[in-house]
Amino acid sequence: MNIKTSVFCLLAILALISCDDNTGSIGSSIIPGEDILSVHDSTYYATSTTTISERQLLVRGSDCYIGKFSDVETGDTMIADFITQVGCTENFQFPDSVYGLSRFHFPKEIEEQMQGKKSLRANLRLYISEYIGDPENAMGIEVWPLTKTLDNKSRYYSDINPEEFYDASGEPLSRVTASATDYVESDSIREKVSGYIKNIYIALPDSIAINMLNGYYSDGGKEKFKNTPAFIDNICKGFYVKCSQGDGTMMRISKVALEIHFFHTEVQNDTTKLLSSYAEFLGNSEVMQVTHFENRNIENLLDETRFTYILTPYGVNTEMTLPIDAIIGNTDNIINSASLVMKALVPFTGKYALGIPSTLLLIRKDELKDFFEELSTADNITSYSSTLNTTYNEYHFNNISRLIMRCSNERLEWITDMGMEFNDESKAIYETLFPDWNKVTLIPVESVKDVANNVVYMTIDQTPKCVRLCGGDLGVQTAIKIIKTEF
Fold first, then answer.
1. Helix axes 424-433, 401-417, angle to 10 degrees
2. pLDDT band at 40, cuts 50/70/90?
3. Which of 52, 127, 203, 458 could link 255 by a cystine bridge, Cβ 3.0 to 4.6 Å?
4. How far apart are CA 142 and CA 172, in angstroms?
5. Which is more confident, 359 or 271?
6. Contact 306, 472 (CB under 8 A)
């Protein structure tokens, strides 16, 4: 900003807040005659449309999704399955010996206690944090072993192809039928256990436990359990969890746990006791987890002209074109404030209707991919976030003035650098080369916070949700209310 502009900004502020009978003419008395300063408000209108993403975005988060849900309101069908690794704690240790491996021998009395008992077994638990749809709906789930590990240096997206990581021509480790209701434990147990989380129990072949324990007790085996990377490389690459049948439920999985159950002995008061234990290897934010999302039958949403859609998981967004030229005009001016309100229409009200996204990110379209790649937060320059006002069903973006000025200034600088005059012809050339220069995307996000509750970065909201916003070719356009200083 040059000196002249800085002076007039200051004068504008003084003129607004410091006028009385004695000082009201101070500002105008020192403004040169050829410079007339004016502060006023205006309303402009942005156009919006529903778009289907041509590329997927990086999804970060500690949760996975499994299920299939066909939404009767939109006609969309969402399918989710996921790939997960499981890790171990630093320098993990099993007991000195476990029952059921040929390398270890136990006293006769232990052998007698073990008669009729399964000595080694493995299972997977999927802990359910929330779900959409019918909680009683039966879902078929398959668990496949990975033949290829996820690379923690690579970036994976929601359109990942799971078949690159497992042998689809083989057989799954397990097939189960489950629901979000959780019939694994009785109601009495769930009520008595503090902090109980509903989960899906999936029995795995005993060979999973046998091979893992044999690997631990082999020569140099403990090195394979010294940390998570060693465990993944040498013991367990991970699992692909697939929804094989059923339609009507989508579950959010907050934690995956591989449990290895075994018996071992411990000397207590000079007596050898046989104990039942299990080791837990977790799939969570500490390891690589990727949900594969697929949306079907979403093309029909593009036909709607009375409003626009946002549908998660990521794929259907609202794109808005800002009226930069109309706002800036042909005079030297400064945008003091620019606010817009996105009005959400009446939510869907069906029995299993999708919820409305709680937070929307408004961001320049050409910066969308980098925003998630770089684990960013809204900077209030080219990206802004707004939480749903549930009283009025509105998203308020209170001041996007810096975004408007950034779009305008970038175009002016490019035209100037190219040695062209700033006119309709040069603007047309710029807009041909940079067609998204004045476009923004609205996308649902979630904030990832640290232990102090500070937002560390934002990630795409993967929970199935849907909102209709005022807009479209024939709908009510979005008003941008501007206060600007012209001189």
1. 100
2. confident
3. 127
4. 6
5. 359
6. yes
DSSP string of 323-390, one letter each residue: -HHHHHTTS-EEEEEEEEEEEBPPPP-STTPPBPPSEEEEEEGGGHHHHHHTT----SSSEEEEE-BT
A 10 A CB-CB count for 150 gives 20
* Cis peptide, bond prior to residue 313, ω within 30 of zero: yes
Q: What are phi and psi of 225, to 5 degrees?
A: -115, 15
Amino acid at 336: N
Q: Give the Cα separation of 195 and 263 in Å (integer).
A: 27
Q: How confident is the model at residue 254 (pLDDT cuts 50, 70, 90)?
A: very high
Check residue 52 and report its DSSP letter.
E
* Continuous segment of H or E residues that includes residue 26: helix 26-30
Query: According to the model, what pLDDT value does residue 44 have?
Result: 96
Q: Are 385 and 458 in contact (CB under 8 A)?
A: yes
329 band by pLDDT with thresholds 50, 70 and 90: confident
Average the pLDDT over 474-483 and give the result: 92
Q: Name residue, tokens 């209709």.
A: 468
Rounded CA-CA distance 60/266 in Å is 43
Cβ atoms of 283 and 199 closer than 8 Å:
no
Place of tokens 């040059």: 2
Task: List, in sequence order, every beta strand (DSSP E) within 180-313.
Answer: 199-204, 239-245, 249-268, 271-283, 289-296, 307-312
How far is the C-alpha of 112 from the C-alpha of 104, rounded, in Å? 16
For strands 38-52 and 289-296, give the pairing. unpaired
Average confidence (pLDDT) over 61-79: 89
Q: In this structure, are residues 328 and 447 in contact, taking their beta carbons and an 8 Å threshold?
A: no
Q: Which residues contact 422 (CB under 8 A, 6 or more apart)?
A: 412, 415, 416
- Residue 289: CB atoms within 10 Å: 24
Q: Tokens for 23?
A: 């000082």
